[in-house]
Amino acid sequence: MRKFLKKNKISLAIIISVLALGTAIYFWPRKTKTLKIYKETPTKTCENIPELPDGAVKLVTKIIDGDTFLIENGYSVRILGIDADEKDHPCYEPAKNRLEELILNKKVKLEKGNKDKDQYCRYLRYVFLTSLENKNLAGKSSMNIGLELVKEGLAVARFSPEDVKYKKEITDAEKEAREKGVGCKWSAVSEWKNLTTKKQGLEVIDACSAKEYLGKKVIVEGRVVDTYHDLKSNTVFLNLEKPYPHQCFTGVIFSSHLYKFVQKPEDYYLGKTVRIMGIVKEYKGRAEIILEDTDQIEIGK
Fold first, then answer.
1. Is 2 a catalytic residue?
2. How many CA atoms lie within 13 A of 138 on its CB side?
């Protein structure tokens, strides 16, 4: 046995060392990998919002912006059929101020549409000011507030597929306001050199209405509020009216056509009101037009 140990002491030493090392590694305190768990924010429920009957008359207590206000007891109402600028956009203040002039501290009639509330628990209503609350209605029995804001160029027409009530009146009012350069939405940009109905024979539509014109060739008008240059694909995206991922419409310039445009179009068009001409397509639920040449886009003067 002693001869065996003496003869194989190097091999045995190696084996013992390996076993010792393995044991140490096994019992060494190990760091537990912490997994990041992202909890979803609970969806806001509207269970505590009371029923508001169709045609209810309520006092307006506060104006939030050009299309949203509070009624008595602090409940929020979103005007159907229109869309006004959000904060930090050009027409936010004019639209909000005008809505205050029209309905603040007055009672309004609230008429239901197809849906009762939105995801923010706001009542969705067409809003009317009656002659009892305003003696200056020029003989009218009531005033459609959404229609009035669009007529004055302070908001644009906006309808879901389900809500078509008053759609013709409000969309016609927007078209007229745009053509005449009325109000904050349209007066700043009232002259177009090339992209007009007269020259192109195409309808001019608001950017947020573009999805209703899929497959049609039109002229889309709106303000570029957000841009992105994807360096990997060398593609430029011009998002109109609302920033990504909530943009109303996108003008897309692919790498193969980018050389025809100004250097850094993502900077050049940002913040400007433009018209984009082409066939409206849909990509991931959003409306877009592919820009292949500079004659498809024009900045308002």
1. no
2. 1
